[in-house]
Amino acid sequence: MPLKTFKRETADALTLEWVLHVKNYKLTLDMKLCVGCEICSLACPKEAIKLEKQPRNPDGKAQHARVDISLEKCNFCGICDILCPYGAIRVTVNGEHVLNVVEKESFPQLVRDIQVDMSKCPVDCVECEKACPLNLIKVTWLTPDGKTVEDLRALTRRERKNLKVNVDIKRELCPCCRLCEFKCPEGALHVRKSFYGKIRINQEKCPEGCRDCLDVCPITGALYLSDADKKVYVNETFCVYCGACKIVCPVAEALELKRTKIMHTPVRSGAWNKALERLASPLEITKELKAKGSQKALESVEKRLGWRVP
């Protein structure tokens, strides 16, 4: 048992801590990064994470749900850290970002596949930086000796040709919405989603004039208000299927969301199978288990025959 336990909450962060003889476990939830989605609460094997709906802002807009974590139930396993699409949760051991479930290969890591070909970036272009709804991209132009250029307009045409670009993306915080890819005029960015799924708004059950889902959606363009009928619609190209909209929806079945695929590193784990049951559709679970079964059978054949099956 821990010698001391702490739970501290401020407007910016929620911190849980266990102090043992030789180890100090700490979980920090960054409230500025958290969007009140349902991923962490569904994934938690101890049911330690709860979502609390918040009252509306003074201007009448809905607020995203607030996350609370039980100190009594949490065991600092780090599953919430791994799966948070927005990188809002961080678990450390003695100050280091160490996740035991990953080190012991009992849980996979979420794949954030973001590729940037900087050789295609034209001088002056900052479209990806402007497109990112979470301000996670910074485009910097450098001289051949590595100095940052503050004002490109002050350079000659020849000097501009010799510039190098650096596109810095905070990948650990990126939910892979693909907005930057679609806004890039030169095709320099390629993003593969981490979560796939389906989302549908049932307009017949949607309350007249309700904009709650649109108010809390963190991804610009994933939900939008139609000029024609003033109702909210979905653009699944940019949706990351986090569920922030589903949590605040005031009417049951007005908004339906299912995750059908989660990109992750290879793993054989009962813990992951259980998390997948809570996060994704039954069809996705069946597909993944069948794939694992086929792979296991293939490895058995290879081992028995002593050669690799092509």
| Overall pLDDT metric | 90
Structural class: alpha+beta
Low-confidence blocks of residues: none
Proportion in β-strands:
15-25%
CATH class assignment of the largest domain? Alpha Beta
Helices and strands, in N-to-C order?
EEEHEEHEHEHEHEHEEHEEHEHH
Please give the share of residues in helix: 10-25%
The CATH architecture of the largest domain:
2-Layer Sandwich
CATH topology of the largest domain: Alpha-Beta Plaits
Q: What's the number of helices?
A: 10
Q: Give the beta-strand count.
A: 14
Please specify the SSE layout and strand pairing:
Layout: E1 4-9, E2 13-19, E3 24-30, H1 39-43, E4 49-52, E5 66-69, H2 79-83, E6 89-93, H3 100-103, E7 113-116, H4 127-131, E8 137-142, H5 157-161, E9 164-169, H6 179-183, E10 189-192, E11 195-201, H7 212-216, E12 223-225, E13 232-234, H8 244-248, E14 255-262, H9 270-279, H10 282-305
Antiparallel strand pairs: 1-2, 2-3, 3-6, 4-5, 7-10, 8-9, 11-14, 12-13
